[in-house]
């Protein structure tokens, strides 16, 4: 393959990018998106604040633009994200208890229903575990509605879009550590009790190196019977060895179905001056790009 998407497809995987509709009129950007990637995810357009800015009033225009752009070009779409403690609309931030629980589950049902049949994998729940050594849940308004909020969200998503793969997605879970083990235990519990979960996303916002047990961590989740995906990859100064190592790890785990980078060019990145992506601000391929393509 001569592009990331083609080379990944030859290995039975996808190579995707997070995109923003506010850049869809930038031709350098769109040429890269269309040439290199075979999967897209909305960087912001499908989050709760974007899709339900007022309770019960849903806005899908920008999410729909990304979906139709992708599907019309034969790309798949990751849905990001149905429930998260961040980027909630103000009305939800101010709710609690059963009112918030009902609003959250309604949100899952409405959004997953709107996009039914169009999403390859949904990040049903994003970043619900705490950093550090506890291995437990993050405190949030959603968590305070009861520990079963995550399984309730997955059940609602399955009912709304039975063909989408349903993922749990988080960061700082790239090696074997207390946080990833807490998630591992949740996934094992969900599988044993029949709670619908199909995949785990590893954001992989990385420093300049990859944990030595990165592949082993992906594999232990895959061994639970879920797919794994690298969902938001970016690496400090786009270290080419690290980009290659992530690529190798995914290829070595048969249930690792694809990799998504969190943006296209360095200047599109949420990480500011980290130069963490595969294309420079002019759209030129960086060394990391060649490392990934050579590894695929
Ligand atoms: C980031 C976006 O890139 C920014 O544009 C936005 O201002 C904040 O969110 N983890 C996630 C993503 O799951 O949704 C975040 O995206 C980056 C961290």
Automatic annotation (TrEMBL):
Active site positions, chain numbering: 232 (nucleophile)
Record keywords: Carbohydrate metabolism, Glycosidase, Hydrolase, Polysaccharide degradation, Signal, Xylan degradation
GO MF term set: endo-1,4-beta-xylanase activity
EC number of this enzyme: 3.2.1.8
Domain (GH10) ranges: 1-295
GO biological process assignments: xylan catabolic process
Reaction(s) catalysed (UniProt annotation): Endohydrolysis of (1->4)-beta-D-xylosidic linkages in xylans
Entry's family note: Belongs to the glycosyl hydrolase 10 (cellulase F) family.
Name this protein carries in UniProt: Beta-xylanase
Biological classification of the source: Bacteria, Bacillati, Actinomycetota, Actinomycetes, Micromonosporales
